[in-house]
């Protein structure tokens, strides 16, 4: 298990290679990379600012990653989330899950991404080319997706 919050970009292939190097117990690897779009709701975006609460954010990401390990039989996992000002086309987030079989890797990756989209302690501000900006809330569709993982 590994969690990183960083300003620097990441290389998906290099991160996957590091995570799986020498591992013959891994039969499935699922990766998800989130990137900054050039528009939202039909309006152009010049940049996105991602802020977090240092220490608390990493602790919370580690907690939800540990929850994924309790729910699915994982051999490895990684969450990288960038902070700072990002431009359209930049990487934002990388989630990698690895398991012996594909179902666990797919479901764990979906669980982690649904959490990151709705509950992770990050704040996102989109800025238009004219300099106006607004804070981004989770979408209803993201909230609905996250509800399927709730434990009664």
Structure description:
It is a single chain. By secondary structure, this protein is α+β, with helices and mostly antiparallel strands. It has a single domain (3-147), classed as Aldehyde Oxidoreductase, domain 3. It is built from four helices and ten strands; from the N terminus they run βαββββαβββαββα. Strands 1-6-8-2 form a four-stranded mixed β-sheet, sandwiched between helices. Strands 7-5-9-10 form a four-stranded antiparallel β-sheet, with no helix packed on it. A two-stranded antiparallel ribbon has the order 3-4. Helix 2 (56-71) runs antiparallel to helix 3 (102-118) and helix 3 packs across helix 4. The longest helix is centred in the C-terminal third of the chain and has 17 residues, at 102-118. It is globular, with a radius of gyration of 16 Å. The two termini are 26 Å apart.
Distance between the termini: 26 Å
Q: Which series of helices and strands comes N to C? A: EHEEEEHEEEHEEH
Strand order, main sheet: write it out: 1-6-8-2
Architecture in CATH?
Alpha-Beta Complex
CATH-assigned homologous superfamily: Molybdopterin biosynthesis MoaE subunit
Q: How confident overall, as mean pLDDT? A: 92
| Count of structural domains | 1
Q: Output the CATH topology.
A: Aldehyde Oxidoreductase, domain 3
Low-confidence stretches: none
Proportion of beta-strand residues? 25-35%
Largest sheet: 4 strands, mixed
Structural class: alpha+beta
| The top level CATH class name | Alpha Beta
Q: Give the helix level as a range of percent.
A: 25-40%
The number of distinct β-strands equals 10
């Amino acid at each position: 298990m590994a969690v990183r919050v960083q300003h620097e970009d990441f290389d998906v292939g290099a991160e996957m290679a590091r995570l799986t190097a020498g591992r013959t117990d891994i039969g499935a690897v699922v990766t998800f990379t989130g990137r900054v779009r050039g528009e939202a709701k039909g309006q152009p975006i010049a940049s996105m600012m991602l802020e977090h609460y240092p220490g608390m954010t990493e602790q919370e990401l580690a907690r939800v990653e540990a929850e994924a390990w309790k729910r699915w039989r994982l051999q490895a996992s990684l969450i990288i989330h960038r902070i700072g000002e990002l431009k359209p086309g930049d990487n934002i987030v990388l989630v990698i899950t690895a398991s012996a079989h594909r179902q666990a890797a797919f479901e764990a990756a979906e669980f982690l991404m649904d959490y990151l989209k709705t509950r992770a302690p990050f704040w996102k501000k989109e800025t238009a080319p004219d300099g106006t900006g607004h804070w981004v809330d989770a979408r209803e569709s993201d909230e609905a997706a996250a509800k399927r993982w709730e434990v009664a």
